[in-house]
Amino acid sequence: MPVLFLGHGSPMNAILDNVYRRSWQALGCRFDGQATGGHFPVPQLIICVSAHWLTHGWAITGMAKPRTIHDFGGFPQELFNQQYPAPGSPEASLDIASQLGIAVDHDQWGLDHGAWSVLKPMFPEANIPVVQLSLNWDAPPAAHYEFGKKLGYLRDLGVLIVGSGQLVHNLRLMDRSASSLLPVDSWAQEFDDFVAGHIAAGSLDQLANFQELGQVAKLAHPTYEHYLPLLYAAGASDERDTPESFNTEIIAKNMALRSIIWKVT
User: Fold this and answer.
1) H-only helix segments in 10-152
2) Is 67 exposed, middle or buried (CB count within 10 Å of its CB: 0-12, 13-18, 19+)?
């Protein structure tokens, strides 16, 4: 299976007919069982690492019917009406938890918008089991990358690993006007270039050193939970993979939603 990092952006991307939702729909169409020419097997299971589930230690959802979590406010009722009734996989969750030495959450979480907002356009029939992996907020960035490496074995078992976050996430400094002619903030471009450069060079372990960018990193991520899912996806990739980036345009002056798929060629 390939590995994905998706910049999910606003929850509204789940229902708007825009470039992001269309790109997720197109990506989902590539999972058609052909496994050739840029097409992939249908996943047996999806494990999603979302920026929106922070815990002490790692945990994985283990319920049979994970609820759709609307963890946002101030949006139209249509967005709150959205449901993604994909089944869970208690058996798979217990096995993964045992392999990785992590906790199983049977009733506290579900699928938050970092997960369902991208998975619903990709797999609208909601017939593939989905489990969600939490972010261990007590762990340093390098530990998240190393944990991603531990997930890599799942790819050969038909598991699609999806990291859902955002490459630059500073809601206070983004420009919400509708203009498409806004200049890009230099710090946002520098951070995006840092990530793109290491991905192209295959120096993925260096992605965990983003804080060495100093003020640029602080501007890109005042808190860095939206960056961490990238480290899991990068860690789960390996030397067989070729990366492919999409949604690379920076909008609203500094909103970078670069997404990457690592695929065996």
Assistant:
1) 19-29, 77-80, 90-100, 113-122, 141-151
2) middle
Domain boundaries in the chain?
A: 3-264
pLDDT in tens, the chain (265 residues): 999 999 999 999 999 999 999 999 999 999 998 888 889 999 999 999 999 999 999 999 999 999 999 999 899 999 999 999 999 999 999 999 999 999 999 999 999 999 999 999 999 999 999 999 999 999 999 999 999 999 999 999 999 999 999 999 998 888 877 555 679 999 999 999 999 999 999 999 999 999 999 999 999 999 999 999 999 999 999 999 999 999 999 989 999 999 999 999 7
Task: Tell me which architecture the domain covering 3-264 has in CATH.
Answer: 3-Layer(aba) Sandwich (3.40)
Contacts 24+ apart (CB under 8 A), 195-198: 195/167, 195/230, 195/258, 196/245, 196/248, 196/258
pTM: 0.96
79/100 Cα distance (integer angstroms): 35
